[in-house]
Amino acid sequence: xxxxxxxxxxxAAGQKIDEAxxxxxxxxxxxxxxxxxxxxxxxxxxxxxxxxxxxxxxxxPQAAAAPAGSEAAAPKEEKKEKPEEKEKTDEEAASGLGAxxx
Length: 102
Description:
102 residues; mainly alpha; Arc Repressor Mutant, subunit A; 7 helices; 54% helix; 0% strand
């Protein structure tokens, strides 16, 4: 992930994404730079418009897209009844906690 972050940082700064630049960012951050991963990243990003890729990947939440006042215009959904859940006893609830502390 840190390799991708280095490329995004370089892109945001308007710098060219090449092996030397990515390696500088990696070493400046204190991360160990793997030459083969850097080469693979630079090769994968060759010819890719990062800004366009980010714009296509960004998805706005659908709830935010609808204005708050348009509740009357939206079709009402029927509420589905949830199946009743069996209440757990304290002992049953605590039994799963033991796995956390092994």
